[in-house]
Amino acid sequence: MSRPRVDVQPRLTGPDDAATPRRWVPRLRASNPGRPGKVASMTEGVVLIRRDAFDAVGGWEEQLFLYHEGVDLAWRLYEAGWSGWYAASIRMHHPLTEPARHALYHRLAARNRIWIAHRNLPALLLPLYLSAWTTITLARAVRRGGLSQTLRGMREGWTSRHTQRRRPMSWRTVHRLTAAGRPPII
């Protein structure tokens, strides 16, 4: 039995109240940022979450610090039976920033991607998820820069993954995430 929606993800827009970069839309098929729908991830900068649900799943994972903590929290909320909603009609303004990334981003994003996989995914999905994200991440790093820091983060994530408490999600949660448009393999 599924619990009600527990988090609402507002639409982030630039100061002009119109521009929403694809990277700010927390669902697949992001070409129309004005379309609401189920989400299985969240933007860490602005999200509304019921406090009892947030506390029940342990809140933000402080070891992640930056990058992918919204995916980690969303997966744990889904595992607990809740779901989220992208409320495109609720708008929050954010400065439009240059998407060029810095060294810290490349390292921590790569490390944290491995950590959240190790923490949350069933063993059978780990190679699929990590293969998909390694391919995507390396292709982006080669095209846009940051390859050495990305490789450093991947090495750091892999060698320290056992510092993360493993709580693999159920196959029911895998199914729910997939039905929400966010299969936990990409």
TrEMBL record:
Gene3D superfamilies: Spore Coat Polysaccharide Biosynthesis Protein SpsA, Chain A. Residues 1-20 are annotated as: Disordered. One of its GO terms (molecular function) is glycosyltransferase activity. Pathway: Cell wall biogenesis; cell wall polysaccharide biosynthesis. SUPFAM superfamilies: Nucleotide-diphospho-sugar transferases (SSF53448). PANTHER family: GALACTOFURANOSYLTRANSFERASE GLFT2 (PTHR43179:SF12), RHAMNOSYLTRANSFERASE WBBL (PTHR43179). Belongs to the glycosyltransferase 2 family. This is Glycosyltransferase family 2 protein. It comes from Streptomyces halstedii. The lineage of its organism: Bacteria, Bacillati, Actinomycetota, Actinomycetes, Kitasatosporales.
